[in-house]
Amino acid sequence: MENKNDLPGLPWATQPDHSRAGVTSSAKPFHVLALSGGGFRGLYTATVLKHLEQQLGAPLARRFDLICGTSAGGLLALGLAAEIPAEQLQGMFERDGVRIFNRPTGMRRILSPFKRAKYSPDGLRAVLTEKFGERTLGDLEHRVLIPTVNYSKGSGQFFKTPHSPQFSLDYKHKLVDVGMATAAAPTYFPLHRIGEEGVYADGGLVGNSPGFFGLHEAHYALGVPRGAGNVRVLAIGTMTLGATKSGNSGLDWGILDWGAKLFSLVISAQEYSVDTMLGHLLGQDYVRIDDPATPDQSKDVAALDLVSPAAIEVLTSRGTQAARRVLGDRALDPFRNHLAASPVFFHGPNKTPENRHA
């Protein structure tokens, strides 16, 4: 297991290690795309990405030096890094949402949510297999970072392309497995096992909005120096609703009262905290695209697994309007004009030529 992929802030990460970095210091800023989790509300994110890609005129992965994605955002991050057109990724949610969140049947219908996850993983696995096939992280030509929780050891873990010499195992993992791991939302989908490495739970438990992880990766794994203008982060949310308690409910809750509400609270609280702190740290170098749902629309998109014509209409229309707004905003100009440098990889089929004999 690669301990370099564990949670930031552990002793190994006390100082940036420029000597092993895949990026050298330069005047060119390092751009991070951070995609939040949110279940079927990832359709909002995918819609924004589709319009951005169409307007910028090139695969979005070529515009960013690192793509981070959690849960539904992780599926999109993997798709972008594989240069699957964002329009097709939007279709993965819009057309295949009913397959991913398939109606429970048989014993699963009887036992969920008490003894079984609500949904079988078969639908999600089938959709991801159709999109990614047998491709692995090592097959990608763009850097990615995908948060998960390794439940076998009780800590966060990050699947990454081999953009540092120490990332010597992850490149062998199939994109399907990485996607299943980051999207294994508690109570919604079963835990996902990857070989002998362990079982994994949804990355939203450790960081639903992964922009901070991207900033950390730039400084500590890739050697990008600190300082204003050196790292820029573009984050796209999922119309995340602040999980709140109703005024007429009690205070003494048990497992039946909390249910899936607990997971929703975790991801919404993280989303708000990360957004606030990245704004403080990066100032104008941090741009976030997200929208609150109106009271009427919130009924259509409140649940992470609510797939309906009304939800599709709200998520696609609000995503389109969000893209229209940001494309007219000068804050997007630095991202609009950026082309990522070719990444350096240390392992796998896309190993950079100068590293092939290392």
Automatic annotation (TrEMBL):
A motif (GXGXXG) lies at residues 37-42. GO terms for molecular function: hydrolase activity. InterPro entries: Acyl_Trfase/lysoPLipase (IPR016035), PNPLA_dom (IPR002641), Teg/CotR/CapV-like (IPR047156). One of its GO terms (biological process) is lipid catabolic process. Keywords: Hydrolase, Lipid degradation, Lipid metabolism. A motif (GXSXG) lies at residues 69-73. The keyword Lipid metabolism applies. A motif (DGA/G) lies at residues 202-204. It comes from the Bacteria. The active site is at 71 (nucleophile), 202 (proton acceptor). Residues 1-23 are annotated as: Disordered. Residues 33-215 form the PNPLA domain. This is Patatin. It comes from Thauera aminoaromatica. The lineage of its organism: Bacteria, Pseudomonadati, Pseudomonadota, Betaproteobacteria, Rhodocyclales.
